[in-house]
């Protein structure tokens, strides 16, 4: 296989997919190269899903610029892509005078970064508006334009819209060598495929330092920094209405408590440097740290409500800021690296910035057929009874519930497969089948059946996330 492109993006996380989608606004042949079987397999599937206001990053940094720009456009892009985004606001809570001073610093920094609406609220205001928070809280910084989204659904939506507009995404393409051939980069995969491209963009997340080195470009280091989380069952009444942060420390923004757009409660993350870039284990120590710190803010937090735990790995750069630049020595090689928090918020603005930069560089014309709109899969759980009836008449499989915890129909699972899901996790992230209270105990075998039927492969070929993560084996004993 060999294909020739104008632009190739390495890595199909939220940043890579945002850049890819923005590139399709121009008349360019573009692709993304992804080593896994699906999009959002790295940090994009395991983070807090927070759309930050922009008071945290130091003024003048790329983090500050793209955080604020990203926040400003987030609602519009989510609207175009039919992705949930709720601007619920956030509080940073302070427990003593020292922390109240930190709130003041954050307020001033936020103003310098161009963040609107920041206010320090009194203890009374906090208790009136967030009655379940600890009575030891003395004040809080309120940011009305902070919000929440679903990070992997956003990545999927960007991917689908990029494909709709003519981009290619090549999966299972693990980049192992990058060479120059005249004006082209030749990018080789571990399984002996290659593509050629005029511009190469490095969005390889925790592996971005290795890719930059492979291209002979800037040397930097990405340190994997893990964060562990709890997800709580959907409560009858949300214990918090906003994203609740504690004051940041040198370890980051600290452990937060937030509603998710899907109606669960998310608690985490801690912050620990680890040796392996792939070590997404959770540990008792890490989870205990998360729970204790979160309980300080929300004393009613109970482990009885936990339905699952997970960890995600931040791509922390040794430069202390996002690395977003064309390489000084390797022309047409662009690093978009070290995109740790607030990377999700920044991703949409980074996409626009890079696509404009590349279009100028290649003198590309506008793609007049670009369609910014993408429609989400119709969801059984979201429709009224009349709408459900109408859908079931049109598509009988809409009336067959596969995941009873999250009320996901067979129609939704088949639709997710048509749109590119190939694994159990791919189905889970697109439909929520497996994300309910029983964590897939009931629905996973049925999802395997549907994947096997729709893809025309045996059930033993179905994986959780590709790369040998098989669920079933052939029967090898007895009759
Ligand atoms: O601890 P930080 O600063 O990396 O931030 C992690 C937050 O959960 C970001 O949403
Ligand atoms: S039935 Fe799907 S998560 Fe419980």
From TrEMBL:
Residues 6-357 form the FAD dependent oxidoreductase domain. SUPFAM superfamilies: FAD-linked reductases, C-terminal domain, FAD/NAD(P)-binding domain. It comes from the Bacteria. Pfam families: DAO, Fer2_BFD. Residues 401-452 form the BFD-like [2Fe-2S]-binding domain. Coiled coil: none annotated. CDD domains: GlpA-like_Fer2_BFD-like (cd19946). Transmembrane segments: none annotated. PANTHER family: GLYCEROL 3-PHOSPHATE OXIDASE, GLYCEROL-3-PHOSPHATE DEHYDROGENASE. This is FAD/NAD(P)-binding oxidoreductase. The lineage of its organism: Bacteria, Bacillati, Bacillota, Bacillota incertae sedis, Caldicellulosiruptorales.
